[in-house]
């Protein structure tokens, strides 16, 4: 019993550190996110931080690689609809979720602080490729469509899209841009019946907002 309580407390402490670090990284960037700022935001000691993370760089990597956790657990759709829902919820949460926003910011800016870690992009590619493999098994894809290739393209497109949207509108129009991407892309990868019934509306973005 005591061991279980300690383990649960450790998980909660790590989550608090990740969330606090994400808020600080989102506000100040990597260079402005001092350990002291993060600890003050989390209300924790340096000992607690270094029990879970070796350094600020290690903490930044954890934030970068936590992006899917903000979306994937909340999805219950399948195949191409799941892939579309993933991107719509990503667009929505980028406006409001510091953990996702900080993960995206750090991933995009990482070379400026000495990192070259492709794993956040690779995570998204694999998650999206799995949706597309499921879509293939369900007969939703046109002949010759390769899941890994399409998944990589969607990650590349979304990466550039959110950067463009951030400058143009502070990401306020990101949902519309994602919807437009799918209107253009779906006819080239999906069979006509699936194109007709795949939902692209903002109501598909239903993940809880903390």
From TrEMBL:
Keywords for the protein's UniProt record, in alphabetical order: Aminotransferase, DNA-binding, Receptor, Transcription, Transcription regulation, Transferase
Keyword check for Phosphoprotein: no
Pfam families linked: TetR_C_45 (PF21935), TetR_N (PF00440)
Gene Ontology molecular function: any one: transcription cis-regulatory region binding
Matching PROSITE patterns: HTH_TETR_1, HTH_TETR_2
DNA-binding region: 34-53
Domain annotation HTH tetR-type: ranges: 11-71
PANTHER family xrefs: HTH-TYPE TRANSCRIPTIONAL REGULATOR BETI, HTH-TYPE TRANSCRIPTIONAL REGULATOR RUTR
Annotated protein name in UniProt: A-factor receptor protein
